[in-house]
Prior knowledge:
Residues 136-168 are annotated as: Disordered. InterPro entries: Alkaline_phosphatase_core_sf, GAG_Ulvan_Degrading_Sulfatases. By secondary structure, this protein is α+β, with helices and mostly antiparallel strands. The chain has two domains: 8-51, no CATH class; 53-161, 2-Layer Sandwich (Arylsulfatase, C-terminal domain). 26% of the residues lie in helices and 10% in strands. It contains five helices and four strands. The protein has helices spanning 15-23, 40-43, 87-92, 118-134, 155-161, and strands at residues 55-58, 64-68, 71-74, 99-102. It starts with 14 loop residues before the first helix and ends in a 7-residue tail after the last helix. The model is unreliable at 160-168 (pLDDT under 50).
Amino acid sequence: xxxxxxxxxxxxxxxxxxxxxxxxxxxxxxxxxxxxxxxxxxxxxxxxxxxxxxxxxxxxxxxxxxxxxxxxxxxxxxxxxxxxxxxxxxxxxxxxxxxxxxxxxxxxxxxxxxxxxxxxxxxxxxxxxxxxxxxxxxxxxxxxxxxxxxxxxxxxxxxxxxxxxxxx
Length: 168
């Protein structure tokens, strides 16, 4: 990369695997690093041939988010994790189950646009379901998930999964 250059492609920490594999000439099996895309050409100032369509995020408490272009959809009423508002706090405040943000215009995620752009919410939920069904977010053979996945996990489901411990 040239000094002071910018790389604007959407990447994830998982992309480091495919990038290093390409750098060292290692061929990855189809069932290895299924969500990883090499961005090595971008580091060399060239176009990335197969940029990712979206990135899936998963919080420590099991909540999903998906980022595509300028849009981020969080499938949780709160932060999705331990920071305020937690999902139980957000639910008690009557906050909606999903949050949609335009990250270009609102990087601090202050204005939930889910009700204003329901078609974008539907499209991102459908994309996330597709990725979960296929067990991957990249081209290749569909992979089996190691557990059943409910992308619309509710606080009730989280408590059940934790054995009903009294923790937010």
